[in-house]
Amino acid sequence: MSFRSTLTTATALLLITAPAMARDQINIVGSSTVFPFSTTVAERFGKSTDFKTPIVESTGSGGGLKLFCAGVGEKFPDITNASRRIKSSEVELCASNGVTEIVEATIGFDGIVLANSTKATQMNLTLRDIFLALAKDVPAGDGTTQPNPYKTWDQVNPDLPAVKIEVLGPPPTSGTRDAFAELAMEGGCKTFDWIKALKKEDKPAYKSLCHTLREDGAYIEAGENDNLIVQKLQANPAAIGIFGYSFLEQNSDVVQGSIVNGVPAEFEEIAAGNYLIARSLFFYVKKAHVGMVPGIEEFLAEFTAEDTWGDEGYLADKGLIPLSAAERESWAAKINGLAPLDM
After folding, report:
1. Structure pTM?
2. Which of 1, 136, 255, 317 is in the most buried spot, having the most CB atoms within 10 Å?
3. How far apart are CA 66 and CA 226, in angstroms?
4. From the centroid of its chain, how far is CA 211?
5. Are 296 and 289 in contact (CB under 8 A)?
């Protein structure tokens, strides 16, 4: 379905009659994973241009899109960051509130890491291990399920340490949570043949089984602040935290990433597509605000400059896994041309 539809009469009249925005500073919300990249670009932009430094808030991908889609006007954000792609239901929410032209930007890739303190033993996990440790219900061995009985990692897999399962991770509003459920949890879940077959027979039941995390204290929702998770891992070497690769890169002196399916959580492995828990990162721009809030087009040009998001750009130093040169060229044309989202 294409969302390149014209503005509704009501929205068009609103934009024609509305006064210019009083706000002279770009307002960005959204993903905690994209936050450090967006903040870095915003700070460079503020120092290198005559525009004010954009305000960037970490609200989570879902929370950011909810704010972004709430309406057009100075009290609503101009840009929202996301560590997953916008959902069709969110596009519909936007449209219902007059946000009918959205520019999508894919900016690079990120790995989701399961990290622990460098004072602890590095974990060597399979996707099946991750699913069995964190799923609310697990296979009982006869084609049925049972509430998760595993209390320690060696109960999941005897090759793992006899350490209590205690994982600090993102809440449901987080794009990292969505991606982790799809890539890690579902990836491990479908290693069981009968569950894989269930996908064709009863997709809702399959998704519920594979994506639902346990609620008995083994998985702890730690909020949208990934830096806080890093601090908690330092205080509790027995715990594991889930967050984006950039936070591992920035804190490699105190935390280490787990090996997953034999592949370490490293820049080169993620870029090569070998690390299985990896996803694309995005931001979305409200086209109706372009020309109303000063600096949006110039900010987009800064973000898509080669020395920003390229192989040798300053965002790579922050842990962003760059798109290929051809992909960057294609996305830069779409972003700077304000091409509307097409789903």
Report:
1. 0.81
2. 255
3. 21
4. 16
5. yes
Positive/negative CA dihedral, 156, 160, 166, 172: negative
d(CA 122, CA 310): 31
Q: Are 60 and 174 in contact (CB under 8 A)?
A: yes
* Residues 82-125 pLDDT 10s: 999 999 999 999 999 999 999 999 999 999 999 999 999 999 99
DSSP-derived secondary structure for 123-134? PEE-HHHHHHHH
Residue type (1 letter), 235:
A
Question: Interior CA angle at 283 toward 180 and 229, to 5°?
Answer: 40
Domain ranges for the chain:
9-109+281-336, 111-278
Fold of 111-278: D-Maltodextrin-Binding Protein; domain 2 (3.40.190)
Phi and psi angles of residue 34, each rounded to the nearest 5 degrees, phi first: -80, -20
d(CA 311, CA 99): 34
338-342: long-range contacts, CB 8 A cutoff, minimum separation 24 = 338/103, 338/285, 338/287, 338/290, 338/297, 339/103, 340/3, 340/4, 340/101, 340/102, 340/103, 340/287, 341/3, 341/86, 341/91, 341/102, 341/103, 341/104, 341/284, 342/2, 342/3, 342/4
> How is residue 141 annotated by DSSP?
S
- Mean pLDDT of all residues in 13-25: 60
Which two tokens mark 82?
Answer: 């996301």
pLDDT digits 0-9 by tens, 318-342: 989 999 999 999 999 999 999 999 8
